[in-house]
Structure formats: C-alpha cells, structure tokens
Amino acid sequence: MGTKIRIEDAEYSIDDLSENGKFRLALFKFSEQRLHELNNLQAVLQRAKNSYLEVLRKEVLADKAGILL
C-alpha cells in the first residue's frame, strides 16, 4: 500500500499521481516546510527585537534617572 495524501476530505494515493503531480507535490511540501522555517525565524527575530527594545528602554530610563538599572 502506497503513501496517501489528504486534500480537503479525500485521500489520494501518491503512487497514482503523474510525474507532474509528484513534482507539484514536492513543490508543495517544500513550500510548506519553508513557511514553517520562516515562521520560526520570525518568532526568534521578534523575541530578539523585544529584548533589544527592553534593554534600550532600561538604558533611556537609567539616563533620565541618573542611576544604573
């Protein structure tokens, strides 16, 4: 029994796909994986951005108050 792919509510056998269909499936999988990687990168960059902003905020407050936080 070959591998199946689910599209909406139906399952299809990958073995039944044409070569073009298998190529499109590979492109789909690549796109899906790349989007996942980019979402993870976005989360890491957002966290770094927030961290930099917090450090900057503390520095500005320390300069105004004349104390080191």
Provide keyphrases for this structure.
single chain; mainly alpha; 2 strands; 69 residues; 1 helix; two-stranded antiparallel sheet; rod-shaped
Number of strands: 2
Helix/strand order: EEH
Main-sheet strand order equals 1-2
**Global morphology:** rod-shaped
Largest sheet: 2 strands, antiparallel
What's the mean pLDDT score? 91
> CA-to-CA gap between the ends?
65 Å
Low-confidence stretches: none
Please bin the fraction of helical residues: 55-70%
Structural class: mainly alpha
Mind explaining what this structure looks like?
With 69 residues, this protein is mostly helical. Helices cover 68% and strands 12% of the residues. It is built from 1 helix and 2 strands. Strands 1-2 form a two-stranded antiparallel sheet. It starts with a strand and ends with a helix. The relative contact order is 0.07. The mean pLDDT is 91.
Q: In a few lines, what is going on in this structure?
A:
The chain is 68% helix and 12% strand. It has one helix at residues 19-65; strands at residues 4-7, 10-13. The mean pLDDT is 91.
Topology:
Layout lengths: L3 E4 L2 E4 L5 H47 L4
Antiparallel strand pairs: 1-2
